Amino acid sequence: MRKKLRYSIAAIAVFAAAVYLNNTNLLASHREGKPVLLAHRGIAQRFDERDLTNDTCTAARMLPPKHDYLENTILSMRAGFDLGADIVEVDVHPTTDGEFAIFHDWMLDCRTNGHGVTREHSMVEMKALDIGYGYTADGGKTFPFRGAGIGQMPTLAEVLQTFPDRRLLINVKSRDPLEGEKLAAVLNALPGEHRELIMVYGGDEPIQTIRRLAPDIKTASRASLKACLLAYIGYGWTGILPQACKNTMMLVPVNIAPWLWGWPDRFLNRMEAGNSVVFALGPYRGGDFSTGIDTPELLAKLPADYSRGIWTNDIEATGKLREN
């Protein structure tokens, strides 16, 4: 009996040592350099983020503006890159005349002087809209951007042409697989070196379609993020990277990261070996992954020498923090 107990204790000790050695960062290589910054919506007007729902009109909750840029415009994207963004995120909607409009909202009514579902309009119609029409920081007393946003809604084609050598993250706002087909056709028409700069995330159905039709494009959806995280937490201690974690974009909240086997360097090296990229987010508290690394306090939750991806909603502030 005692002999069996000793064998069991020895086996447990050997197993624990193997898990430790396979996941300790003491034996992991570390990539030097500065973090890779992903600017959510380029440089945008900030808004009160408390108690948001899918129906919240964020333009009506704008904080006092610190700059004149409107999100998802060529000007805001260029400013985002100039302020230190390595990647800029844009939102797309298909239009009735075969284009993709760069615009965040499902409906036009909040931000613009238009009405109705965004994807039910032509690009010709939306080019005539004022995308700064609905912004107010004082409950509707003043609208500082009215008139400034006329004609500023770009097409995806214009963005790709303007930034052929810059990295972009495209957000598909729908769950329509046909939108995935249309976007895959646009991306597959690009030169290979341009496609390497593009990532796509969004609804499960269009992302599954893009993964099938444009398999070289890195993608992410709620389903793929969940599948990767659960599989990695389940058996990532072995050093084996789950298939769900390969050729993908992974979003990791800072309060979840320490629970990942081998965080930071072992985990990040494994993801990189699987042709995947990782971006750290702010804390996950349920709902959508929209909180960015936007303050010194959140940046401090990452390793001091962290050199992989960071998702930020405030590229102006985070770009300065990276340089310090």
UniProtKB/TrEMBL annotation:
It is an enzyme of class 3 (hydrolase). The keyword Hydrolase applies. Residues 51-322 form the GP-PDE domain. Its EC number is 3.1.4.46. GO terms for molecular function: glycerophosphodiester phosphodiesterase activity. Keywords: Hydrolase. This is Glycerophosphoryl diester phosphodiesterase. It comes from Rhizobium mongolense.
